[in-house]
Amino acid sequence: xxxxxxxxxxxxxxxxxxxxxxxxxxxxxxxxxxxxxxxxxxxxxxxxxxxxx
Length: 53
Known about the structure:
The chain is an alpha+beta fold. The chain contains one helix and two strands. The mean pLDDT is 82.
């Protein structure tokens, strides 16, 4: 197992819809962002995939 060192202004834990959109919006204003996702693919259920009243 190799270790990598990353440097960024912001680290977002979670690659679901909210995490990815937050990272996208921050990069648009010049923030360096790293998004960490547990699974290697995006085929998982998201907690934020429904809208509640």
